[in-house]
Amino acid sequence: MAANTDTSSIAVRAKPRVGVTIGDPAGIGPEITLKAVAEEEVLTACSPVIIGDAQYLSHWARVFNLNRGFYCLNAGDPIPLNSDAPIIYNLNNVPGSIEMGREQVECGRAAAQFIEVATDLCLSGHLDAITTAPINKKSLYLAGYHFPGHTEFLAHLAQTDEFAMTFISPMLRVALLTTHVPLADVSSYVKKPEIEKLIRLIHRELTVYGIDHPRIAVAALNPHGGEGTLFGFEEASEMLPAIESCREQDGIDVSGPHSGDTIFVRAARGEFDIVISCYHDQGLIPVKCLSFGEAVNVTLGLPFIRTSVDHGTAFDIAGQGRADHSSMVAAIKLAAELFNRKTRTQKAD
To answer: Could you tell me which CATH class the domain 161-301 is placed in?
Structure first.
């Protein structure tokens, strides 16, 4: 679907316009999206534009007794500059035959189309940021989209090779060196060039969002940071040379590798602005222990702002009205905040 190219809607807006994709239709994405955009704190922060299926969303709005009015547009229609009500950008692509709480090719296809259209609208300037509800990776795969998740899919659509999955919470920021990689394979990704590239990306991105001199800490891969190569060689052979290179050649405030059993506590107490984690669970366990429901997934390195929730599709409770939408609220608000920060930084430059 080609985005509307009418540049009359690309102008100074009263509030950031955040596109919100509803994720897998068989999961809790539609529910948490509808609940989140009805919150006054979200409507105060931004003008939400839901990328989804209007008829499908109307059904769930009735089921969940969400009576707030929505402004509905068909795909391709110009998006109003400002709207007092949340907007539904209707793709009309969710069949009535889908089943809640189950992996299905139709749901994977629809979820992918929401992402593609939201990206198109963001790249063309009709949206200021994107917040995504959770997708099911198997459904996405069944539909022919062979990406391990949102992060890689969005990077592909944006045609960028430098990106990082990052989690931001009130107490902790964590960026991942590897994402959905088997634990047995992680050490093969802990290489000097990749670590250097990630450190430089994080430094650049945090500066864009208003942190002038980011303090970056790198978590060790092995227990006790390898204990002088007794428990592993990656720290000495790959991690430390990368850290020293970025510090000496680029002037980046980066340190480590720090033992993984203490670095997150030190960061949560304010010693560092962000921690680079070697693998998924190393970084996500402390984030979710400290701030589950408040943490936000942010993709750094894209040419637009993208945030997401810190949880999955929750098929076991889909369609039951029991889903907690607090992470979606946090994700939408952070998308608007990051857009405002980026705008202020660009004006200052």
So the answer is: alpha beta
